[in-house]
Amino acid sequence: MHFASIIWDDADDPDGNVEHVAQHELTMEDVEHVLLAPTATGASRSTGLPVAWGYTPEGRYIIVVYEEVDEGTVRVVTAYDVPEP
Predict the structure, then answer these.
(1) pLDDT confidence of 45, banded at 50, 70, 90?
(2) Is residue 68 part of a domain?
(3) Which residue among 25, 46, 57, 66 is buried most deeply as judged by most CB within 10 Å?
(4) Taking the complete model, does pTM exceed 0.85, yes or no?
(5) 20-25 contacts, C-beta under 8 A, 24 or more apart
(6) Which helix (H) or strand (E) holds 34?
(7) What span, in angstroms and rounded, lies between the C-alpha atoms of 82 and 85?
């Protein structure tokens, strides 16, 4: 997948996406790595939002839930570990 821009909230925002993925011990780089090179894509069963699955550089298998802002821009909602398929 290719995006021109990935939107991240301010790191200081306690309700922002940077803090949310950090609560799952993930970094922005982990999430961007999966978004740019997913092993699979689909839609969230609970929200219907698009998702990408893949491996972080350290080998963790995660899901990234995101919103499509426009054709080339996405905003990360959350990311967390999931069992490998």
Answers:
(1) very high
(2) yes
(3) 66
(4) yes
(5) 20/77, 20/78, 21/76, 21/78, 21/79, 21/80, 24/62, 24/78, 24/79, 24/80, 24/81
(6) helix 28-36
(7) 9
Query: Does residue 58 lie within any of the structural domains?
Result: yes
Kindly state whether residue 57 falls inside one of the protein's structural domains.
Answer: yes
| C-alpha to C-alpha distance for 85 and 77, rounded to whole angstroms | 22
Domain that holds residue 81: 44-85
| β-bridge partners, 79 | 64
- β partners of residue 67: 75
**Strand, coil or helix: 80:** strand
Token pair belonging to 9: 């909230």
How many domains, in total, are found in the chain? 1
Residue with tokens 């309700």: 15
